[in-house]
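Z., the sequence and structure:
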Amino acid sequence: MKKAISLLLVFSLIFSLAACGTQTGSTTEGAAGTTPATVNTTPAATAPQPTEPSPAFEGDTYMTGAAGKNGAAACASSLASDIAVQIMEKGGNAVDAAVAMIYAVGLLEPAASGIGGAGQMVIYLAETNEYVSIEYMTQAPKAAWPGALDTSTSSNPPSVEAIAIPGVVHGTLTALEKYGTMSAAEVLQPVIDLARNGFPCTERWNTNIEGRFDNLKAYDYTLGLYTDEGFLYEIGDTIKNPDLADTLEFIGKEGIKGFYDSEFTDKMVDYIKGLGGVLTHEDFAQYTSVMRDPISTTYDGYTVYTTGGPSNGGVALLECLNILENFDLKGYGFDSPETLQIMADAYAMAYQDGVSFMADPDYYNLPVETMISKEYAKERAESIKIGQRIKTARAGRLEVTLSETGQKALADYTPDQGGTTHMVCADKFGNVVSSTNTNGINFGSAVAVPGTGFIFSAHLGNLNNTDNARINMIMPYIRVRSTTCPTIVAGADGKPVLAIGSPGNWALVSAAIEGVVNYITFGMKLGDVINSPRSYRDGISKTLTLESGYSEETAKALEAMGFELEDYDKTFSSHVGSLAGIQINEDGSFWALGDFRRMYGASAY
């Protein structure tokens, strides 16, 4: 009976979130400012009957979308997207709303992101008609030298020495200072209220806990943050995090200095050192987010903007699109073995280049311009033969060397997966934000400093921990590499028409590519862009994840090429990413959609 009740609560919550996303000023149970429901005293015979939830727009098959004329948001939780819309309704712009949403998702989906993690965002500024990028990836501490630290993340729990300097607070508050209109305290208040008042436990919450339970139980405080005294919450139970509320209040008052250079910093450092970690106050105090130019390419009349190094996902995304432009995908059709083979092979080559030639651009001289050029893509495209799967995709013949900063870092030497989420936001002023945030692996290091309410990443595991590494070598203060590639697509007039992105390690890159191709090449609207079946080639292997929405004829043809199909018996696979997207229509209205594959949600007004 309890299980049945829980399932009813889940479906009730899903429908209520989807429905509320299309309402002006909508609220959801557990959200800040929710007012008690009015008791219905109308006689039963004349009482209005509940209406079935309806799609927000064409293609919103699973009712995870929202439509509006003034602003929209989509992310891992409708509660978080509601908060973003509330911020915009109060006069805030898309940057204010996106920052609020980042912290709200950190509260509601702590496995994937939070204060202890990292991220990148691409922003379109309507007033100046420009695209900018803020990079706030985690950073290696001063003590990080090749082979000097145990950066393993495969143990239960991950090594404490793998904890990196977090970037979220610096990056988000920098975004507010440069491009927002509201104070940190104002933006964080609805998240603080939600943390104190509580929110309902979802199936996704428990799934994340179960997947990393062995890590979480290593630390009593961490286990207490996310479970009911060591047991899973029942679906629908109220979860609160007053410690995180206190931390957010502190950040709202004291800002960047409060987090990175204060007694609060000492509190974090002392606890981590007590566990065997190596972070110091100096490590925190020197941290800064970085303003970087977005990278871009044209694709069939549109311009696609995303993030460059230290991410390797953005370069791979653009390289892949450039390769695909050499083929008539539209002529082959969406559900064809030729299209899927070309996309799989192009992705495999872009993946190889991303792994081989990308890292922190301050430490390495990177061949980015070559990698995202049309000429290089044409050369790579010649390797693709229709009907013949590329069996061994190799990196191109490019050169990468240590920069002056990287050389100096090594000269000073004296003998030292997963958890990601995406969110998009657009406002009535024309501003658009696409942001991907990450803990590296789900729940990162699982280390939470008592009284703070959040966990730290174990992101140093993303760096190569050997002194003969060709690229992405662990060094003091190097930025950690990630696959994040938040993306904005611009039309012929240079203004955004689509903001999109995904979590999922390398699958997030593939998902973003397919989203862009669906929109541009196949002319799909947002609902079909996200809800259509997707595929994913596992790196350079012959394994091809293929959701069951593709025809049996296509599946058999791919097997004949030598692909080994995975998950073809499933409507949705867990290996193809989870898109959050906003489409900006010609009349200025917005469609927002969260991927049903990971129970994402959207809101608009």
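Confidence is low (pLDDT under 50) at residues 1-50, 413-417. The domain at 292-411+486-604 is CATH 1.10.246.130 (Serum Albumin; Chain A, Domain 1).

Let me know what you think.
H.
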